[in-house]
Amino acid sequence: PSRLTTPASCGLRLRKSNPLAAEGSSLGLTAPRATCARTAWTRQEGQRRPQLAHTRGSPLHIRCLAGVVATGARGHRRARPPPRDLAPVLFRASVPGPQSPAPTLLAIIRKALSEEKRVSTKTSAADLVTETDHLVEGLIISELQERFPSHRFIAEESAAAGAKCVLTPSPTWIVDPIDGTCNFVHRFPTVAVSIGFAVDQELEFGVIYHCTEERLYTGRRGRGAFCNGQRLQVSGETDISKALVLTEIGPRRDPATLKLFLSNMERLLHAKAHGVRVIGSSTLALCHLASGAADAYYQFGLHCWDLAAATVIIREAGGIVMDTSGGPLDLMSCRVVAAGTREMAMLIAQALQTINYGRDDEK
Fold first, then answer.
1. Tens digit of pLDDT for each residue in 7-55?
2. Binding site listing
């Protein structure tokens, strides 16, 4: 069975057979042979360890991954906390209970998902934000700032409020508190939390948590990509006529933008792609690409917080992430093509007409 890392503070030893042994964290929980899904974690045979149940409101995967996230800045020791700090780096309380200082973020999102929401708009009537977006972003940033006061942050709702999106060489957390806010508002259960980390303007690792399906996607530069501890591998498809392509509409709805969006979709359908899908969450669409469930993804109008974590995950799963021009990815350009193979990525890029959304670092 595959295994998932857990903080060294748990006092559990690393077994050499662990596929994530290179992460350098201690291991104590063994995952069953199932695919990325709801998982019960049990103690290993012959070892006296308490049984931990992965229950509703208890994102154990996130807690176990915290060690990977917090130590992801390869070669930059200032970004690496001591082991005892790994578990609470991203979330105030991974397992709710009497000793929890606050509800888990997962519990907050799930509770809000089933309730009526106070909704506001940002750049357009289709660009939505809720109180939960602000709450979750605030909790994530406050926790990280407490642990890493010298680090910088780029976050969706802070940017909407006027904060500058400038990626400097400093250690930088790139946060999307709720990706798929329109889904969230309508109780459509495709919603994720996305956290990426960059040092020296290079993406080092990413974490994306599918809130309703309890899937944790992770990627660390040079260390692979995983979903709930199982290694991810992109599709090897090179023929666009056999491809399932994913995209998102973007926030603008003016006639010129809609005409270009529909034209791009029509071009791919004329190229006889098996299908073009829109699921309402760019981060989760990119995770489907990383898992091999889709063959390509493109979008104009996404932002750096939509893309940062997913880029690492796709690359570590063997995929390509690049600019729609066919050149290297520019994280601030608000456009992307990603695919399992370079051949597929180039075919998609060549079929697209550019939709200009400007740049994140110029807004």
1. 333 332 333 333 333 333 322 223 333 333 333 333 333 333 333 333 3
2. 156, 176, 178-179, 306
Mean pLDDT for the chain? Answer: 76
Domain ranges of the chain: 240-362
Binding site listing for Mg(2+): 156, 176, 178-179, 306
* Chain segment 206-243, per-residue pLDDT in tens: 999 998 898 989 898 888 999 988 999 999 999 999 99
Residue 175 one-letter amino acid: V
Q: Which residues are catalytic?
A: 156, 176, 178-179, 181, 306
Report the CATH number of the 240-362 domain.
3.40.190.80
Other C-beta atoms closer than 10 Å to the C-beta of 13 total 10
Per-residue pLDDT tens over the stretch 237-246? 999 999 999 9
